[in-house]
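User: Teach me something about this protein's shape.
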Amino acid sequence: MIPRADKGNSIVILPTQQYESKIQNFLHGNNFITTTKDPTNTFQTEIKNRIKQSKTLIPSDSKWKYINLNPSAPSIKGLIKLHKLGMPIRPVVNWLKAPAYKLSRLFTQKINNIAPLPNTFNVKNTKDLLQKLQDTPMAPHFTLASLDITNLYSNILVLETKTILKDTLEYHQTDPQTQKNL
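Assistant: First, the predicted structure itself:
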């Protein structure tokens, strides 16, 4: 197996069994649930029904744009972390063929337009971070810290996310029908 390394623009050569073991270790170590039945078709049907029900967020003449015509379950690749003990993987998931991919992009745009998050603590990329650091006054007693976050998005709780979205939309005085649809 010849996967890419996580950092350093290099590749790693390792036995396929070892690579697959790293993927399995990641999945088991992060409480993923395995299933014997692929839920993609069921989820696709649910997505189509939700799109049909949408009255205000998706115009009738463009609903077809948000249905993934040939959906499949997301796939995972692992970038090997050569700089870490045991060389674990950094998971990279391809969501392009997932049933909700196009719909999630639409809703992300709509939510950002209706209720944008304040960018106080956000950075877009390394260049943006460097610019913000240059613009920040630094005193000799200041200390910079770099935090290594583990599995940043592995457990985003749906109910808490819905509550945060509801509160944010109410704060931005979004009409109740749009709130309900989102």
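Now, about its shape. The chain has one domain: 16-138+148-181. The chain has a mean pLDDT of 88. If you'd like, I can walk through any region in more detail.
User: That's plenty for now, thanks!
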